[in-house]
Design a protein that fits this description.
385 residues, alpha/beta, Aspartate Aminotransferase, domain 1, Aspartate Aminotransferase, domain 2, 2 domains, 7-stranded mixed sheet, 3-stranded antiparallel sheet, binds pyridoxal-5'-phosphate
Length: 385
């Protein structure tokens, strides 16, 4: 079969090797603790499921939904943004429903990127940014995230000729995979850069509600001038354990959202209205539904960090997200070698940093998407080897 060049140029699936190894070991009867998955193990809160059951049965929801999202869902988003971030949004023009934020993050390139255009992409990072850039014919320019710079891209290091041609920039805080959070100053630098170089900012904010020690992460839109230069992608996936439901949204610049909506109306027909109704319920009740989820992660993080520290590992406790990004403790081993060593000898599955780009070399990512007891057992298994 002659696949398109678009498909042929795709990098190999980063988890292929790890998946193969997992299958092999499982076939041999090895009991694995899988901390490599970025998908909550907790179920969607019961009241959201209850709302969905009722919404499903309503015939008016069985027809094509409005392209831009139901008015009810968009109003819930605007209300939640005001309450949570103090950001005012016009639900008609500054909110767009998405079939999961990944859908919007991928489609945005078709609206703004022409062949040869530069897109600034953080590395290590979510693979969708560079892949979707290339699908649209754009050229990803990688912005490395270094520990010494708090895993924020150093915008001063972007060469002038690149900055001038940068059509779009992706940023993602709280960050996957590094678990870093952004401060106000960084977001201000981004707005300044965007205005100077006429670059569209896409902030992926999927993890803003998974935070620790009551330190709430910021919205990019809280920065003065941000709404003129960018949009923020949000998702109910991580906030409410709804990854399988496929519901997210983009908020911010009406002009930018208009471009994204134009693409969407030509490739999809919106998310099932019943799911949007359940999503509305979730956002309306966020303050009641999310504390228990955060508490679970806080418990897991505290226990796991303590266990790792006791073993003499150097760990930076994450401030947000459900990841722990740790330097490979064995000198001389690559991320991939170390991850293989862990799975073969302890049955603990982690993601090698390089799965998120070469800049992830020297790190591994643990997901806190397993019960506390499993995390403690994982630490003790690692200690034994
Ligand atoms: C999980 C995740 C998302 C959310 O994806 P959905 O399509 O909304 O499920 C977005 N960005 C990053 C970096 C993620 O890890």
């Amino acid at each position: 079969m002659n696949y398109s060049k678009r498909i042929q140029q795709l990098p190999p699936y980063p988890f292929a090797e790890l998946d193969k190894k997992k299958k092999e070991l499982r076939a041999k009867g090895k009991n694995l603790i899988d901390l490599s998955i970025g998908d909550p193990d907790l179920p969607t809160p019961g009241p959201i499921v209850g709302c969905m059951k009722i919404a499903c049965a309503q015939p008016e929801h069985h027809r094509y939904p409005p392209y831009e999202g139901t008015q009810q869902f968009r109003e819930a988003v605007a209300k939640w943004y005001l309450k949570r971030f103090g950001v005012k949004l016009d639900s008609q023009t500054e909110v767009l429903a998405l079939i999961g934020s990944k859908e919007g993050i991928a489609n945005i390139h078709y609206a703004f990127v022409d062949p040869g255009d530069i897109v600034l992409v953080p590395t290590p990072g979510y693979p969708v940014y560079p892949v979707a850039t290339k699908f649209a014919g754009g050229l990803p320019y990688l912005m490395p995230l270094h520990k010494t710079h708090n895993f924020l891209p150093d915008l001063k290091l972007i060469p002038d000729n690149i900055a001038q041609k940068a059509k779009l920039m992706h940023i993602n805080y709280p960050n996957n995979p590094t678990a870093a959070v952004a401060d106000r100053k960084f977001f201000e630098e981004v707005v300044h850069f965007a205005k100077k170089h006429q670059t569209i900012i896409c902030h992926d904010a999927a993890y803003t509600e998974i935070y620790y020690d009551n330190q709430k992460p910021l919205s990019f839109l809280q920065t003065s001038g941000a709404k003129e230069v960018g949009i923020e992608f949000h998702s109910l996936s991580k906030t409410f354990n709804m990854t399988g439901w496929r519901i997210g949204f983009a908020v911010g610049s009406a002009e930018i959202l208009k471009g994204l909506a134009k693409i969407k109306t030509n490739v999809d027909s919106g998310q099932f209205a019943a799911i949007q109704e359940a999503g509305t319920y979730a956002l309306d009740h966020e303050e009641e539904l999310t504390p228990v989820i955060r508490k679970t992660y806080q418990d897991r993080r505290d226990s796991f960090v303590e266990a790792l520290k006791k073993m003499g590992f150097k760990v930076n406790p994450p401030k947000a997200s459900f990841y722990l990004w740790m330097e490979v403790p064995t000198t001389g081993a690559t991320s991939s070698q170390y991850a293989t060593h862990l799975v073969e000898n302890s049955g603990v599955v982690v993601t090698p940093g390089t799965a998120f780009g070469e800049a992830g070399e020297g790190f591994i990512r643990f997901s806190l998407t397993a019960p506390k007891e499993k995390l403690i057992e994982a630490a003790s298994r690692i200690q034994k080897i």
